[in-house]
Structure formats: structure tokens, C-alpha cells
Write a structure and sequence with these properties.
Number of strands: 7
Helix content: over 70%
Number of helices: 6
Order of helices and strands: EEEEHHEEEHHHH
Shape: flat
Length: 547
């Protein structure tokens, strides 16, 4: 965009924007930060009904540094198509001002700023380029790019004329402020003179009023002192009378307090002796409880031993029962075998009987059957051999039967011995069970006695605690009475210096002791009303201490 040959009509020129903006000026070898003034004007072309805008970027410290740009609606149309601007020519000045404001805010509040204005030289050195860019993580995003051409003499003259007019206007404003300040100074000087005169008059009036007030204060002070002296005299007489009365009451209370103190000391001694006796009883009970606990531990150990022996005997009984079962099975087997042997012997006896019958028949037939003698003899010999074998078998079976019978008797003897041992063990177990039951009963009795003793000990401890509390309360009461008596005696000693004679003090002390003794008797008789009596005694002693 080049320099326009048309000029802006001075009468239609209107300033739209005028602020200082920080620019990043990029040189060939470095970049520096400079603050420049941005001015934006709107108006119309001279001799034409056409709108135009003028942008000036100048250095306020150097009037020779000026960058300018004039463009009309037609120039803005080309700029809009080149850079993709979305706003119209009428809205462009406001949006351009908004971009410069965002640069100002970012430079003041952000480090590094996200929006910034840049000025850099063109590559052909024909001018400079003004850019408004947004910094992102990827690249610099240019929102606007304007090419500022070197200014002509006409624009330079207009700029200088504008700056001169600004300076003249500011000078006139400063001169007006100076004149206003001088007028204000003259008015303040007149007011100061009037104030000084007023202060002089007030000082004289204050001096006169101070002298009058001093005289009145002197008279009033003398009158007040006289009235105060009269009041003090009357109060001194009243206090003297009241002092005598209170001293009399204090002497009476002191006598009662002495008597009360003696009673309290006696009661404390009695309580101490009772406490010692209770402590002795508690020690005896603790010893008895320790012995009971020792017996209880011995009974528990005996019970555990009896339980172990009982378990051992139970296991032995089980073993004996298993052995008895095995023996019974063996006896049953031997009886079965003996029955079989008896059956065999019976069969052999039957056979022998049949053989004898055959022998008799043969002997009878021997005479009748001679022819068959050889056969009969041979048969007889066979029968004799068979009889011998049968006799041997019978003898062997008889021997086995005797052995079986002896084994059975031996097993029966063993069974009877085991039965006797089992009976003895059962009797011993029954005795152990009875002993265990007796031990349990003894342990229960000891536990019951121990619980009873523990309850007695707890009751005695409660009584001992109550006695301790009572002793502590009595000790506190005694200490408090001692303190009150000491204070009262100190007050009595002081009062005796103002008293007329010793007989009166002695009488008052005796009356005070009697009063304290009566109050102590009331406290002992009615424990529930001790707080009331104590408060009454405290009130009496406090009145005595005040007197």
C-alpha cells in the first residue's frame, strides 16, 4: 500500500485513538523494545466526498521519528482481500484500537506477552512494516500487517503543525493552571491574614478566661476542701465507733475460735487413732486373704494332680478292658477247639465200640467158621493194629485236652486276677473321685470365704476412704481455722495497741473461742448442715478480720 497523493481535509480530521504502545523494533542484527505514540485519525479527502484513515506512529522523544499511513476505502478493500480481514471499513478503526489495547494490557500483565506490536524494516529498505502478532506454542500468528512508507514533507509538516498545536494547547493549559494557582495563593494569603487576626483575638480572650477560671477554681477548691474536711471528720468519728464495736465482736469470735480449734484438734487425734486401727485391721485382713489365696492355690494344684492320676487310671482301665476282651476271645476259641476234640473222641469211642462188637462177632464165628480162621486172624491183626493206632490217637487227644484244660484254668486264673485288679482300680478311681469332689467342695468353700473376705476388705476400704476424706476435710478445716485464728490474732495484737486495757481483750477472746466451739459442736452434730455452719463461721471470721 503506497502513499496516497490525496490529502486529508483539515476541517474534517477527527482524532480516534491516541495512546502509548510498546513496540518490538527489529533491526538487522538485534531487536529492542521502544515505547511509541500511536495516533489514528478519520476524515475525508480534500475536494472529494470520500472517507480516509490516517495512522501516525511516532517517538515522543524524537520528532524526526515518524511513520505514517493514509488509506481510503479502496485501499482498505485491497488490504482486506490480501489479509482476509472480516470487518468493514467503518468498523476497522475500532478493531485496530482494540488490537493496540490488547498489546498494552499484555505488555503490562504478561511475561512474555501473548500479544505484541512489532516494527521491522522491509527487505528492499523501502519502508517499515507494522505487525500485530499473537504468540503461540507453534508460531507467531499475525493478526494485521501494515506497510508504513517514508513520510513526505507535507505529512511531516502536518505532523509538526499538529505537535506544535498540542504543545501550544498544553502550554495554554499550564498557563491557565498557573494563573488559577496564583489566584488561589492570593486568596489563601488573605484567609491566612484573617485567621492570624482571629487567633490574636482568641488568645486574648482565652487569657482573660483562664485568669477568671483560675480565680473561680481557687475559690471552689477551698470550698470543696472545707466540705471534704467536715465529711472526713464525721466519717472518722463514725469509723471510730464502728471500729470499737467490731473489735469487741472480733474478740468474742477469737475466744470461740480458740475453743473450736481445741475441739477440732482433739477430734483430729481421735480420727487419726481410728485410722491407725482401721489400717491394722486392713493389714490383718490382707494377711488372711493371702493365706486363703495360698490354700486355694495348693487345692488347685492338688486337684490338677488328682485329675492327672485319674486320667492315667482311666487309660489303664481301658488297656485292661482291651486285654480282657482279647483273653475272652482266646478262651472262646479254646472252648470251641475243646468241643471239636470232644466230638472227635466221641467218634473214636464209637469206633472202638464197633470194633469190640466186631471182635466179639468174630470170636463167636471163630468156632463156627474154622475155614475162615486165617482170614479172621488177618482181620484180627488189622483190627488190633487199628486199635493201637486208635489208642495212640486217643492218648494224644487226651494229652491235648489236658493241656487245653490247664490253659483254660490258667486263663481263668489270669481273668480272675485281672478282674481283681480292675476292681481294685475301680475302687481307687471311686476314692479319687470322692477325694476330687471333696476338694471341689473345699475349693468352693474357700472361694466363698475368699469372696466374703474380699467384700469385707472392700467395705473396709470404702470406710477407710471415707475416713481419709473426712480427715482431709478436717485437716482443711483445721488449716483454714488456723489461718483465720492467725489473722484474727494478728488483728487482735494490732487492736491491743489501741485498746484501753488487757482485761477487755481477754474477755473478747474467750467469747470468740466459745462461739467457735459452739459452732464446731453444731457441725459435729449435724453433718448435713456443715456447709451452712462453715459459711456462717467464715462470715463471722471475715467480719472479725475486716474489723
Amino acid at each position: 500500500m503506497g502513499i496516497m497523493t490525496n490529502e486529508m481535509d483539515a476541517g474534517s480530521a477527527r482524532l480516534l485513538y491516541w495512546k502509548s504502545v510498546k513496540f518490538a523494533v527489529r533491526m538487522t542484527d538485534h531487536t529492542q523494545q521502544e515505547t511509541m505514540t500511536v495516533r489514528l485519525f478519520s476524515g475525508s479527502i480534500t475536494g472529494k466526498n470520500c472517507k480516509m484513515l490516517r495512522l501516525w506512529v511516532s517517538d515522543p522523544s524524537d520528532t524526526r521519528c515518524l511513520h505514517a499511513l493514509d488509506f481510503s476505502e479502496a485501499d482498505f478493500a485491497g488490504l482486506k482481500s490480501q489479509q482476509g480481514i472480516l470487518v468493514t471499513f467503518d468498523d476497522f478503526p475500532a478493531n485496530l484500537a482494540s488490537l493496540f489495547d490488547r498489546c498494552i494490557v499484555a505488555a503490562a500483565n504478561e511475561d512474555p506477552p501473548l500479544f505484541k506490536a512489532c516494527i521491522c524494516l522491509r527487505e528492499d529498505l523501502s519502508g517499515v512494516v507494522l505487525q500485530v502478532v499473537e504468540v503461540s506454542e507453534f508460531k507467531l500468528l499475525a493478526h494485521l500487517e501494515l506497510v508504513l512508507q517514508p513520510v513526505s514533507s507535507t505529512i511531516a509538516c502536518e505532523y509538526l503543525t499538529f505537535r506544535t498545536a498540542e504543545l501550544v494547547t498544553s502550554q495554554k493549559a499550564l498557563m491557565q493552571k498557573l494563573e488559577d494557582s496564583q489566584a488561589d495563593c492570593e486568596k489563601l494569603a488573605l484567609e491566612l491574614t484573617e485567621t492570624k487576626d482571629t487567633c490574636t483575638v482568641l488568645e486574648s480572650a482565652i487569657t482573660q478566661a483562664s485568669s477568671d477560671s483560675a480565680e473561680a477554681a481557687t475559690l471552689l477548691r477551698s470550698e470543696l476542701l472545707q466540705e471534704k474536711a467536715d465529711e472526713l471528720t464525721a466519717q472518722r468519728l463514725a469509723l471510730s465507733t464502728e471500729y470499737d464495736t467490731l473489735r469487741q465482736k472480733l474478740d468474742d469470735q477469737l475466744q470461740r475460735s480458740h475453743a473450736k480449734h481445741a475441739d477440732v484438734l482433739a477430734e483430729a487425734k481421735q480420727l487419726t487413732s481410728e485410722k491407725l486401727s482401721l489400717l491394722a485391721q486392713v493389714e490383718d485382713l490382707q494377711k488372711g486373704l493371702q493365706s486363703v489365696r495360698t490354700e486355694h492355690s495348693a487345692a488347685i494344684s492338688l486337684h490338677s494332680q488328682l485329675k492327672e492320676s485319674n486320667d492315667k487310671l482311666t487309660r489303664q482301665c481301658g488297656d485292661l478292658k482291651s486285654a480282657l476282651a482279647c483273653t475272652t476271645a482266646d478262651v472262646t476259641a479254646h472252648e470251641t477247639k475243646n468241643a471239636e476234640h470232644v466230638e472227635t473222641i466221641k467218634s473214636q469211642n464209637t469206633m472202638i465200640t464197633s470194633v469190640e462188637e466186631a471182635k466179639e462177632s468174630l470170636a463167636a464165628q471163630l468156632e463156627e467158621c474154622g475155614r475162615k480162621l486165617d482170614v479172621a486172624e488177618s482181620r484180627l491183626a488189622e483190627v488190633t493194629a487199628a486199635e493201637g493206632r486208635s489208642g495212640q490217637m486217643l492218648a494224644r487227644l487226651s494229652a491235648e485236652l489236658r493241656v487245653a484244660r490247664e490253659h483254660s484254668r490258667h486263663q481263668a486264673a489270669m481273668i480272675s486276677e485281672l478282674q481283681e485288679q480292675l476292681n481294685v482300680q475301680v475302687a481307687h478311681v471311686n476314692e479319687l473321685k470322692s477325694a476330687e469332689a471333696a476338694v471341689k467342695r473345699a475349693v468352693e468353700e474357700k472361694s466363698f470365704e475368699s469372696n466374703a473376705l474380699q467384700e469385707q476388705v472392700n467395705d473396709l476400704q470404702c470406710k477407710l476412704t471415707a475416713a481419709h476424706e473426712s480427715l482431709n476435710g478436717n485437716d482443711q478445716m483445721i488449716r483454714w481455722l488456723n489461718c483465720q485464728l492467725n489473722e484474727a490474732q494478728a488483728g487482735t495484737v494490732l487492736s491491743r495497741h489501741h485498746c484501753s486495757g488487757p482485761n477487755t481483750d481477754g474477755t473478747r477472746s474467750e467469747e470468740a473461742g466459745r462461739a467457735v466451739a459452739d459452732l464446731k459442736v453444731s457441725i459435729a452434730k449435724t453433718p448435713g448442715r456443715q456447709p451452712v455452719y462453715r459459711s456462717r463461721l467464715a462470715q463471722m471470721l471475715s467480719q472479725g478480720s475486716h474489723s
